[in-house]
Amino acid sequence: MIHKIRNQKVTLDSDLAEMYGVPTKRLNEQVKRNSDRFPVDFMFQLDEEEWRNLKSQNATSSWGGRRTPPYVFTEQGVSMLFSVLNSPQAIQINISIIRVFVKIREWGLNYGELALKIKELEKNSSDHQEHIAHIYQMIEELLRPNLEKRT
C-alpha cells in the first residue's frame, strides 16, 4: 500500500511489517535502534492530522488501536529496512531486490550498446544515401550528352 503524504510516496510501518513477516513493534524498535540510518527523507512519523486524514480515506479500519501515529517510509527507507531486519521474509525480499537491480543494470548496459549500434546504423544509412545520390548524379552526367543530342 503506497500513500502520497507530504508530496512523497510512502508506505506505513504496519504494511511493511506484514510484508517482512515481523510485528510492527519489532520493525519500529529496529528502526529506533538504527536511527542514524533513517534520515527524514527515508522515513518520518505522521502528525495527528495526517493520521486522521489517512484513516478517513480508508473506509475499513485495519489500523487497530494504535496509540501513536505510524511511521511511514519512502522508497529509500524501505530499502534501508533490509539492513536492520533479519526475518526470513526480509532476507528473501532483499535478495530479490538485489537481483532486480542487477538485471536493470545489465539491461542499462545492453541499452547503451544498442543505442550505439542504432547511431552507427543511422550514420551508415546516411552514408549510403550520399553514395546513392552520388551514383544518380554520375548517371545523370553520363546520360546528359545523349539527352542533349536527341533534342
- Largest sheet: spatial strand order: 1-2-4-3
Strands, total number: 4
Proportion of residues in extended strands: 5-15%
State the order of secondary-structure elements, H for helix, E for strand: EEHHEHEHH
Radius of gyration: 31 Å
Average pLDDT: 82
> Distance N terminus to C terminus?
82 Å
Weakly predicted, low-confidence segments:
none
- Quick one: overall form? elongated
Kindly name the structural category: alpha+beta
- Number of separate helices: 5
Largest sheet: 4 strands, antiparallel
Helix % is 55-70%
Care to describe what's here?
The chain has 151 residues and is of the alpha+beta class. The chain is built from five helices and four strands, in the order E-E-H-H-E-H-E-H-H. A four-stranded antiparallel β-sheet has the order 1-2-4-3. The protein starts with a strand and ends with a helix.
Task: Offer a quick outline of the entry.
This protein is of the alpha+beta class and 151 residues long. The protein contains 5 helices and 4 strands.
Secondary structure blueprint with pairings:
Blueprint: E1 3-5, E2 8-12, H1 13-20, H2 24-33, E3 43-45, H3 48-57, E4 71-73, H4 75-81, H5 88-150
Antiparallel strand pairs: 1-2, 2-4, 3-4
Helix pairs in contact: 1-2
List keywords for this structure.
elongated; 151 residues; 5 helices; alpha+beta; 4 strands; single chain
